[in-house]
Amino acid sequence: MNAPFVIGEQVRAVDLRQPGEAARIEGFVAEIGGSLFHRPRWLQAVERGTGQRARGLLAEKGGTIVGWLPLSEVHSPIFGRVLASSGFAVEGGALAERDTIAEALCRAAEEYARRLACPTIELRGGVAPPDWRVRTDSHCGFVRELAENGEAQLLAIPRKQRAEVRKGLDADLTVHVGTGAADRAAHYAVYAESVRNLGTPVFPRSLFDAAMDALEGDILTVRHHGEPVASVLSLYHAGAVLPYWGGGTWAARRLRANERMYYDLMLHARRRGCTRFDFGRSKTGSGAWAFKKNWGFEPEPLCYASWTAPGAEARDADPTSARHAARIALWRRLPLRLANLLGPPIARGLG
Question: What range does the record give for the signal peptide (predicted)?
Answer without folding.
Answer: none
